[in-house]
Amino acid sequence: MKIVVTGSLGNISRPLTELLVSQGHEVTVISSDPKKQAGIAQMGATAAIGSITDPSFLTETFSGADAVYAMIPLSFTEPDLGAYMHRAAKSYVQALNETQVKRVIVLSGWAADLVKAENVEYLFDGLNTSLTIMRPASFYTNFYQSIDLIKGKGVIGKYLTLRYNGLRAFLTGKTGLLMGNYGGDDRIVFVSPKDIADAVAEELQLLPEKKTIRYVGSEEMTCNEAARIIGTAIGKPWLRWVLLTDKEMLQGLKMAKVPEKLAQTLVEMQAVTHSGKTLENFHRANPKMGKVKLREFAQEFAIVYHQK
């Protein structure tokens, strides 16, 4: 098949591209970064350099494709995250309608239907195609964003400020902690991007007549259990995950000069996870869990952690 993969060489798109190429598919990878072109070619795929918010570019790239894997990367530099995601989704829909691609896989999130700003799934409902919405749980790779926090860097007074992906989050000034307005003994499903890639590759072989939704996870546990696994791997077995209130989280984001609308969306995204509604939806779907467990990822995390 001719398959278009979006997401450049990210945590999901890289293993997905490798898998699809190994299966003999003709793969085109979309990236906004011209510097990724050589790396994409080395994987045996074709690079298409452009923006997913440009429907003309997408239409040209999707032309002749049998299937498309469509994802919208979260942007913490956008003051209005919801407006950005809707703009990108509408760009996808326009291009997919014009090219009449037969099979479309859309990457969403396990809280997408519960967070208004993040929910763009409905925009794809009008497509005359075989459509699957992928709802992965909390990524293992999100732990990389907390390395500076775990190391206790950047202490300012009694607060600690952490920057990642353009976001500064408000956190208390203690080392050996993870924080958010979900955490502690909240039960969470975590997922490996490799397991997501495997699930997407499986779905690309199918052609359901009606829209389907597939949840993807690798392992379920409490946030503190996850913190201990990560902590043990890096030599900090006391690592724990502190639960902030929504008010504390919002106050901290504002202190860190995160735009108010974006701050509210980020707090809402974490609040629905703390509420347990995301876990209820996941269990209701009864998905098959992936192969990669957190202890396996923790060894990879430890290597990166000690290199910083």
Automatic annotation (TrEMBL):
InterPro entries: Ergot_Alk_Oxidoreductase, NAD(P)-bd_dom, NAD(P)-bd_dom_sf. It comes from Niastella koreensis. This is NAD-dependent dehydratase. SUPFAM superfamilies: NAD(P)-binding Rossmann-fold domains (SSF51735). Residues 7-204 form the NAD(P)-binding domain.
